[in-house]
Amino acid sequence: TLLRTYPLIETESVYTINKGEEFKEGTLSFVSRYLLLLYGLQNDGVDNPMLQSEGFENLPEGISPLDAILNLPEDQRNTILNDILVKIDVMPKSTVAQTATLYTQQEYTALGANLSTIQTNFVLMAGVQMIGIALLAMVVAVLVSLISSRVAASLSRDMRFSLFEKVASFGNKEYNEFSTASLITRSTNDIQQIQMFTVLFLRIVFFAPILGIGGIIKALGTNKSMAWVIAVGVMAILTLVVVAFTVAMPKFKVIQKMVDKVNMVVRDSLVGMLVIRAFNTEKHEEKKFERANADLTRTNLFVSRLMSGLQPGMMLVMNGISILIIWVGSTQVDLGTMQVGDMIAYIQYTAQIMMSFLMLSMVSIILPRATVSINRVNEVLNKEISIIDPKNPKTLPQGIQGEIEFRNVSFKYPGAEKNVLSDLNFTAHHGQTTAFIGSTGSGKSTLVNLIPRFYDATEGEIRLNGINIKEISLKELRNKVAYISQEAILFSGTAESNIKYAQGHMSDEKMKRAARIAQAEDFIMSKDEGYGFSVSQGGANVSGGQRQRLAIARALATDAEAIIFDDSFSALDYKTDATLRATLKEEVNNTVIVVAQRISTIKNADQIIVLDEGKIVGKGTHKELLKDCEVYKEIASSQLSKEELVS
């Protein structure tokens, strides 16, 4: 053969080209072109399509086309060689490369090289590299899982804290816009959906594009004429995803609202269990829960069926694309413009591209629900707060303690047309008790809610120690004003932790003094654990009166200058009520504001203000109001005997 005329090859070293892939491909293409030329010239011209019509069909036996062409004149030889090279240039590059490789193998065999050993070593080396890459991929996958899980967990932790912090800053107006059940769902279920999406997104967002782009590059490098097949597959998958996303998004919004409803029904049933049992309405509550649960289940099933059909649809597209490639590719193989190996490789590359879109579709399955959850969480986080700190808060003056003054104060609830309170004017002085009484709905509790700024007055101003409360920081204002609500709320813990709730560092002496004034000491010390006895959530393991006394002790243990009792004696018996008020008057020199329904609770107050339909209709002492205020006389007549009215 031609190579045997160059014995230098047997002694010279073989060098590896390391000048980049582009240079390698160019060199390989150039060399393959001429190796194919040599291969064709060394074969019989009868069956060789490159040499047909070049006059090599009738060569004498033993004479190869190469021998014949070498004996031709230079001009004629160059013409024939150029014609053959033109035929080679129109062949697929893969065909040229494969034929050149076959020729090279034959020549190496002729030189005595053991190709079997070389191939075995190559396969082993490639296998080791593949195992190494697989192990590296496994390590990277584990690291990605760890990092994505950590990032998602940190994100959900921060979002949950931000949500809690935001809700804690809500005023009553904002609380009324979001139900308790909805806020619980947003801080648990919605954030969990966001966390799940974040984990899945971080695991796929980097890997899937690399897989898809790499597959597209390799597929186009193998055969550009079938690029339209990939485009058809991608468009089909995108159509499936868009349709599923469009149909699912509204349903996910409905689902989250239904979860809110289920939570609300469960919460109402648990809170009102005693009432439910008392009225034998268990079946009614079961049916109410069943309806809410059935609606949620039905909508969930619809979305689940829709999303579960997405993956089989993707697989159908992938298999359809494979069949299309085989159909189109077999035609090109038959025409000689494509090799069978290239067609198989093209199927693999296309499957890789489809797999990347299949992975992205997994994200699209959870994306609609995560999007709804993100919007619901943002709805809370972006909610404007109506009760905010002043930009430049004023410091309360020294010397005046707990004086509260209402100047022309009116109030109506957001969205309401009629005022609940109208043109209120009064002053609650330090060391005195100011009491409010009136019929149900007269605005007593609303009035005292304005003092710690649970709501802001719509007209007029409220002053603490001569300063408008809107000009005082919320922290300082609420440190100066202690509030005991109508419903005594306790937290899970101990009696000690509840009394020390406002000031965890307070001394035991201060705590015990507050408990003694609130008439809570006796029942606390009757427990084996004393102040360490366990209090369940909401104070469910103590009576209503004990719960109120602990709540009063909690307020008395603070350093507040004014204490507001919003109907906080209602669960106390008359004896305990009287003893508590007497002790309070003796030992507490703060401004005391009392809202009550019972005349006996407030008859000894320094100032009693009578409310009727949000207006002050009487102001004075018990005796003065019995003479001058008809509304007060009606209330007193309904509660007191004739002897008590006279006395």
Q: Helicity, in percent? A: 55-70%
Which segments are poorly predicted (pLDDT under 50) over 5 or more consecutive residues?
A: none
Overall radius of gyration: 44 Å
CATH-defined architecture of the largest domain: 3-Layer(aba) Sandwich
CATH homologous superfamily designation of the largest domain: P-loop containing nucleotide triphosphate hydrolases
The computed structural class is alpha/beta
Our count of helices gives 25
Task: Count structural domains.
Answer: 3
* Morphology: rod-shaped
Briefly note the CATH topology name of the largest domain. Answer: Rossmann fold
Mean of residue pLDDT values = 83
Note the beta-strand portion: 5-15%
| CATH class descriptor name of the largest domain | Alpha Beta
Characterize the largest beta sheet: strand count, sense, and whether it forms a barrel: 6 strands, mixed
Keywords:
62% helix, 25 helices, ABC transporter transmembrane region fold, Rossmann fold, rod-shaped, 4-stranded antiparallel sheet, 647 residues, 6-stranded mixed sheet, alpha/beta, 3 domains, single chain
Give an overview of the whole structure:
There is one protein chain. This protein is 62% helix and 9% strand. The N and C termini lie far apart (139 Å). Strands 6-9-10-3-11-12 form a six-stranded mixed sheet, sandwiched between helices. Helix 9 runs antiparallel to helix 14 (340-381). It has three domains: 3-113, no CATH class; 142-381, ABC transporter transmembrane region fold, CATH 1.20.1560; 404-646, Rossmann fold, CATH 3.40.50. It is of the alpha/beta class and 647 residues long. The chain is built from 25 helices and twelve strands. The longest helix has 54 residues, at 115-168. The protein has helices spanning 8-11, 21-41, 65-70, 74-89, 93-110, 115-168, 172-177, 180-204, 207-222, 227-271, 273-278, 282-308, 310-335, 340-381, 444-450, 474-480, 495-499, 508-517, 521-525, 544-556, 574-587, 599-602, 622-628, 630-639, 642-646, and strands spanning 404-411, 421-428, 433-438, 459-464, 467-468, 481-484, 493-494, 534-535, 562-566, 591-595, 607-612, 615-620.
